[in-house]
Amino acid sequence: MSLGIWQILLIVLLVLLLFGAGKLPAVMGDLAKGVKNFKKGLDEDDAPTDKKKK
C-alpha cells in the first residue's frame, strides 16, 4: 500500500494545522539537525578505535 496524493495532502494539512506556518521552518530545521546528528553517530560507531587498553 503506497501513499496517494490525497493522503499526502491530508498529512501536510494536519501538520500545518498543528504547528502553524510560522513554526514549520523551525520544526523542519530541528528535524534536519536530529537526522544529521543521528547519521554522525552512526559513522562514529563504525570508525575503528586506535585506543588500546592497558
Radius of gyration from the alpha-carbon trace, in angstroms: 19 Å
| Total number of strands | 0
Average of pLDDT: 82
- Order of helix and strand elements from N to C terminus: H
Q: Which stretches are low in confidence, meaning pLDDT under 50 for 5 or more residues running?
A: none
Tell me the structural class: mainly alpha
Strand content: under 5%
User: What's the helix count?
Assistant: 1
Proportion in helices:
over 70%
Number of domains: 1
The span between the termini is 55 Å
- Tell me about the largest β-sheet: none
| Overall 3D form | elongated
Please give a structural write-up:
This protein is mainly alpha-helical. The protein has one domain. It has one helix spanning 5-46. The longest helix is centred in the middle third of the chain and has 42 residues, at 5-46. The relative contact order is 0.07. The mean pLDDT is 82.
Task: Write the topology of this structure.
Layout: H1 5-46
Quick summary:
With 54 residues, the protein is mainly alpha-helical. 78% of the residues lie in helices and 0% in strands. The relative contact order is 0.07.
